[in-house]
Hints:
Strand order of the largest sheet: 14-13-10-11-12-15-22-20
Radius of gyration: 27 Å
Low-confidence stretches: none
Structural class: alpha+beta
Number of helices: 16
Distance between the termini: 80 Å
Mean pLDDT: 89
Shape: globular
Strand content: 25-35%
Amino acid sequence: MADVAAIQPIRRLLIANRGEIARRIQRTAHEMGIDTVAVYADGDVSAPFVREADIAIALKGNLPAETYLDAGKVLKACKRAGADAVHPGYGFLSENASFARSVARAGLRWIGPSGDAIAAVGDKLAAKALMEELGVPTLPALEVKEGPGLAAAARETGFPLLVKAAAGGGGRGMRIVQESEDVAEAVASARREALAAFGDGTVFLERWLTKPRHVEIQILGDNHGNVVYLFERECSIQRRHQKIIEEAPSPAVDATMRARMGEAALTVARRIGYTSAGTVEFLLDGDDFWFLEVNTRLQVEHPVTEAITGLDMVREQIRIAEGEPLGYAQDDLSITGHAIEARLYAEDPSNDFLPAGGSVHEWQPDDGSARFDSGIESGSDISVDFDAMIAKVIVAAPTRREAAARLARALERTRLQGVTNNRDFLVATLREPAFLIGDTTTDFIDRVSPGRRRELSMSEKRDALIAVTVYGQARRREGAKVLGNVPSGWRNTFMPPEAATFRVGDVETRVEYRSRRDGAFDVSIGDNDYRVTVLSQEADGVDIEVDGRRFYAAISQCADQWLLHGPGGDIELLELPRFPTGSHAAVAGALVAPMPGNVASVQVANGESVSQGQLLFTLEAMKMEHRITAQRSGIVSRILVEAGDQVDNGALLAVLEED
Length: 659
């Protein structure tokens, strides 16, 4: 039994993070009777996590380096708010040993492992060395030093290889290299990205396995020498080395493998006196596994572990920091059912998953059995300065197949419109036969290639066009300035039908409609005619019957864009104006930004001849670098941006003329 006198309750917790993880920590803290303090960048002033905190302190700045990565500002905020503890969440300062020590020196409780434990294994190179000493299998790795010797280090590591940041995680500061001539640029790019994301540009080379599984063991330790592992998660569905679907338990891990990997994780935890939550990650291939890294923090995917164990990971972290023992041993833990998490990102799967910041016009999570951890609401802006994740959606079920089906349905029934996102891709992945049988190696996306976007059926397009047409007609009638008492569509002579033209995807469709004396509509789309009855009209949708089939569609409008959520999910339609508008696409040889972001570098000059595939610009968005290359050979006749500029999606960067 714990010594009650030794327990020091936390009364006010500062959360040194933002978005969904800040809200998630707030939720548990408030349930435990603990006040919370939010810190925020200028652009986050109206974010839900700021409003929901008991106290919020401005960090005065926009970029990560001048806000959430500024340890001095965060510590001053602690003092100003009267906080007695700090929870770092994940990312930013969560694996910064110096910051953890500074928090402790300031007399505050740090919700995480000690600074010494972070230093021992938080650095990936140090962790590898420790694992080798403990006899855990590791992949060959070499730190990249300044100066000559890079080519030799690459040859010694072997190809393909991975350039990897020694600090942080989340796929940032990582580059796969197939050929020796690409190593130098990959190292430079990874260093810049790691420095921007974690404040540490140290990188190393590691041998790259092409088709393993990514399996991690969740550990938890208290300050009384007790340590357990909470089984495994599989996180093999990845793009750009970032996880997008995680599950627990792994479909490839049996009881024997689980015990082997769990004991390996506990070996290192006991060696360094690990406390709080942490994750030991492995690459798994058949019966063999190799140590990958230790994440000395709460993981993004922790909810799936919570779902199968019944433990609240943030609550456990807080209890440990207050001085309580775990209160359970390894044999007390068991797995119940199966859980899967999908990460909703503001990105375009059809455009190589490039980030797509913007405004979220509609956000209505499904009200079924899924758990939603989100940092947004309708009207939220997704900034290019931070991570592109919108929300995590988690489902637990008795079986893996049922969990996948429930999660796919929850995603389909969620309304998320106004910002390009990966929801349709996630649904397609969850319903892929290869996923359902557990064939989930890290090359899954390239090998299986799930659908990048939902292909609408003819009936879905028809229903959407009809619903928007009659809804828009009613809205216009309600706003009529004259003859407001005249029935809609009334004419004193026979006139042609009213019409509107919409674009759904790349297809333009003309819809003609005429009101009837009984209040119904005759609608024509192409050669097909429909009888439409409006059963009820609301401010945010319409309940209609089309040729005897009834359905409801939630509808909103943003300029010429109609946002509809019907039985099949989200659909967006563009109502075309009477006259065409100009665009950069009309400029011959136009090179446009594929996403919003900051121009990190300009690699060419006006008048320069370039070849196909040559690097022209580097854009930085969502804390990652993206290369803009020439799609053909030519001469750069105009450059319209310079390093440091912030550009919107589709902004004209340069004009490339033929030789």
